Amino acid sequence: MMEAATGSGISLEELQLAARNHGMPLEALRHAITPAGLHYLLIHFDVPVVDAATWRLEVDGEVERPLSLSLDELRRRPAVERTVTMECAGNGRALLDPRPVSQPWLAEAIGTAMWRGVDLRSLLDEAGIRTDAVEILFTALDRGIDGGIPQAYQRSLRTDEPALDDAVLAYEMNDAPLPPQHGFPLRLVVPGWYGMTSVKWLTQITAAVQPFAGYQQVDAYRFRRDEADPGVPVTRILPRALLAPPGVPDFFTRERSVPLGPVALEGRAWSGLAPVERVEVSADGGETWWDATLEDDLGSRWAWRRWTAEWRPSGPGRYVLSCRATDAAGNVQPLEPVWNVGGYANNAVQRVAVTVAH
Ligand SMILES: Nc1nc2c(c(=O)[nH]1)N[C@H]1C(S)=C(S)[C@@H](COP(=O)(O)O)O[C@H]1N2
Ligand SMILES: [Mo]
Questions:
Q1: Whose alpha carbon is nearest atom 19 of ligand 1?
Q2: Which atom of ligand 1 is closest in space to residue 141's alpha carbon?
Q3: What does the pLDDT read at residue 5?
Q4: Which ligand is in closest contact with the Cα of 40?
Q5: DSSP label at 216?
Q6: Which of 60, 149, 245, 314 sits most deeply, having the most CB atoms within 10 A of its CB?
Q7: What's the pLDDT score for residue 138?
Q8: pLDDT in tens, 157-175
């Protein structure tokens, strides 16, 4: 991946990606379930147009009983529902210095949806994965060129990956059929993992005896110190808390203004590694912190938790608000970004400039 020199502006190519792949406006953190049109989007190639009447899901490879299922056949099976917070692995990329040139996310590549569909494990069990299979490969209908390599979008998971037991083959998002941009007619949702694993426009599930060596697995989505470093795979979502920016924004800079007096702060926090246990808030750019009140999750381990805190500014002036999450495994957000070539998983604490009026 290329880098943009320190201080250089966003290029037209980055703008083109950002205009196609929108984020969740942070005021939407006030919704427990993100309305579908406000959920972030990340689409590598083109949104395919799929005829649901002829579409089929194939389950093949190292299986005892290959399956070929229509959408109606999938819908007639017992349904599962899972509320899941999804985040793009590139979230926070544009805040790195130098900036890896790709989709330039700030902090908004997030959303929480209620996904309904077929439990992945039940389908794998029905097909009967042979014991010599080491991975399950998920193949999508969208095609394009990435890193110079022509490809269909594909990702795999190891057969011993615990997330296979939590994954949903979803045909509904928030009680409606999947919108085209979110993977109609069927997508994989892998709770706890960064979004790249949740393959949209799914057409084939293949049990394989060899690890998948395609572009989206071995070239992209790896933490690398430099281009020569083979790196390690990007997998589960690191902890993050975000606050719904308080007060009102300036149109152009989006800096916030609030009247003098106590300010009710709220936001959401999540981690794919372990449940979030603590959220702290700072009004001095991370020098001092106090604890926020954490609410229950939405009945799903994989959904974000709402938090609230009261802020009492000592007087008029400009402040920098931050929040940070700690999960049950002791993972905590860093104050400063940790750089890597692809610009993945930058969960450094958010900074929101707020002016308290006179
Ligand atoms: N087929 C396909 N699946 C895909 C992608 C894609 O480009 N093609 N993008 C992935 C990435 S990088 C992310 S972050 C999520 C985004 O899902 P959303 O657009 O529904 O929020 O989808 C993943 N699944
Ligand atoms: Mo992503």
A1: 41
A2: 1
A3: 83
A4: 1
A5: H
A6: 245
A7: 98
A8: 999 999 999 999 999 999 9
The strand pairing partners of 355, in sequence order, are 257, 318
The pLDDT assigned to 330 comes to: 98
The rounded Å distance from CA 40 to ligand 1 centre is 10
- Lookup: tokens for 324: 């940070």
* CATH annotation of 3-233: 3.90.420.10
Name the token pair of 54: 């002829």
> Within 10 A of 316 (CB to CB), how many other CB atoms are there?
11
Q: Give DSSP secondary structure letters for 166-182.
A: T-EEEEEETTEEPPGGG
Establish how many alpha carbons lie within 13 A of residue 148's alpha carbon, considering only the half-sphere containing its beta carbon: 2
Residue 88 beta carbon below 6 angstroms from any ligand 1 atom: yes
DSSP H or E stretch at residue 241: strand 240-243
The low-confidence residues of the chain, meaning pLDDT below 50, are none
Please give the distance, rounded to the nearest whole angstrom, from the Cα atom of residue 242 to the centre of ligand 1. 22
Give, in words, the CATH class of 240-356. Answer: mainly beta
Residue 324, ligand 1, Cβ within 6 A: no
Tell me, in angstroms, the distance from the centre of ligand 2 to residue 345's CA: 10
134 and 212 Cβ atoms separated by less than 8 Å: no
For tokens 């794919």, name the residue. 272
- pLDDT value of position 234: 98
Domain boundary assignment for the chain:
3-233, 240-356
CA of 199 to the centre of ligand 1 (A): 6
pLDDT of residue 319: 98
Is any ligand 1 atom within 6 A of the Cβ of residue 193?
A: no
Tokens encoding 60? 């093949």
Q: What is the pTM of this model?
A: 0.98
pLDDT of residue 358: 85
Q: What is the pLDDT of residue 298?
A: 87
Q: Is 93 in the pocket of ligand 1 (CB under 6 A)?
A: no
Q: Report CA 207 to chain centroid distance, whole Å.
A: 25
- H or E stretch including 67? strand 67-70
Give 287 Cα–ligand 1 centroid separation in angstroms. 37
